[in-house]
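Homework help board

Subject: predicted structure for assignment chain

Our instructor gave us this sequence and asked us to write out the predicted structure in token form, then describe one feature. I got the tokens but I'm not sure how to describe them. Can anyone check?
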Amino acid sequence: EKVQKEVKEKEEVKEEVKETVVKDEVKEKEEVREEEKEKEEVKKEEVNEKEEVKEKEEMKEKVKDKVEEEKEKEEVKVKEKSEEKEKEEVKKEEVNEKEEYWV
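My token output:
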């Protein structure tokens, strides 16, 4: 009877140890899963940040291009006005020359 009791106690201890090992394994797997989730989140955040930076750079480039385009348009306008003024001056000179000729 004493031997049976000892055997039973040893079996119970073995079961407890087995359960504890299983619990520890489950806990460890859960921790690994959590770490993987966190890594994925960090990766997603990094990708999002890179996308945001890329979008900002593209926007800067668009704005820069637009400003350059506007600057070129303004230069063309100024050039056209200058050419118009020259034409006007030439016309005035021609008129003056004709008037002088007739006088």
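Reply (TA_rk): Your tokens look well-formed. For the description, you could write something like this. DSSP finds one helix and no strands in the chain. That's the kind of observation they're looking for.
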